[in-house]
UniProtKB/TrEMBL annotation:
Its cofactor is Mn(2+). Belongs to the arginase family. Agmatinase subfamily. It comes from Methanobrevibacter ruminantium (strain ATCC 35063 / DSM 1093 / JCM 13430 / OCM 146 / M1). This is Arginase/agmatinase family protein. InterPro entries: Agmatinase-rel, Ureohydrolase, Ureohydrolase_dom_sf, Ureohydrolase_Mn_BS. NCBIfam families: agmatinase. Mn(2+) binds at H129, D157, H159, D161, D251, D253.
Amino acid sequence: MLFNTYEPGKFAFSHESVDYYDLINSEDNLNGSSDFSKSKKWGIIGVPFDSTCSYHHGSRYAPTIIREASFGLEQYNSEFDKLLDGEFYDCGDLNVVHGNCKRTCEILEDSVNDLIEANIKPIIIGGEHSVTLGSVNALSALEDKNNLNDITVIHLDAHRDIIDEYIGEKYSHATIMKRIYDLEPKELIQIGIRSFSEEERDFVEDKENIISFYAKDIKNQNIHLNEDVSTFEDLLSKLDSIEGKVYISIDMDVFDPSVAPSVGNPTPNGLFLADVQAIFEALSFNEEIDIIGFDLVELASDRLGDISGVLAAKVIYDFLTLFA
Ligand SMILES: [Mn+2]
């Protein structure tokens, strides 16, 4: 009999199943010799939640669509000349509470805490962007604190998502980076930005630890209209200069809608995969950082084979190839 290796419920090339008890009680953990920040183990958690979505719905289906698309990829990642053979697990989908963003984030926080205890770093597949908070909240409590003082947040998005309330809601996909900023990150680096309100413009203006790389500037590498413009090279040298713990959050709408049309809020004039790959590579060359968490959110599709879903799977696959 011929067996098909296709397993629709798991990301391609993930390890069989995670045994928390085994991992928590492993020699390394018991001897205190393992360091979460240095761990190369990753655990995927799908969060099928999209209750605060304001435009194109469907991100609740994204974890399924992305996992299915991952099976079109080869274990050998030819673009990085590297096998995807690192240790990572697919822990399945979170039991979300539809309509209750706060509760869903609390449940996610608990699950990420379980991973942290086993020295497994979280890869969150949204879901809408608000779910980032559950993951970041758990990581903010590392080393018995309750802030992000020693964590740099790298945020790839068309939008700043940094208003305090969106149509009266504090917990929403549109306010997520304000909730993150409330936790006092060391730095918030926003990349691919091209749509924000005057309120958001004014908010970031005097914040020295919010650094912006606008899509129009980093895409047009050879056009130096004025000296204030940051080029793609400036972005890479910024990524090369950061130190310590790093969290990465990718809203799929950072990509140009020509390559990622199925997102919650498609926004013209975005980045392409080569840009994001260059960002990943720059981070992988930086030996002074430890990436402690990653999320990819806002893919909004319910169709198998959707090109935006294929791109999302490729982004996670490239990330795992370099960092697992
Ligand atoms: Mn966005």
